[in-house]
Amino acid sequence: MVFGDATVLGRGVTAPATNGLVARLRLFFARICHENPAFEVFARDNGRFVDDVAGMREKLGRKPGAVVFVHYPYADLASGVPVDTLLDAYRQLAETCRSSGATCIIGGQQPVDALPPGIDASQLDLERRASAALGSTFLPLYRYFQSEAAGRRLMVPFDSGDGRLVNDAGHEVLFELFRRRLLGM
Question: How far is it, in rounded angstroms, from Cα 94 to Cα 102?
Answer without folding.
Answer: 9
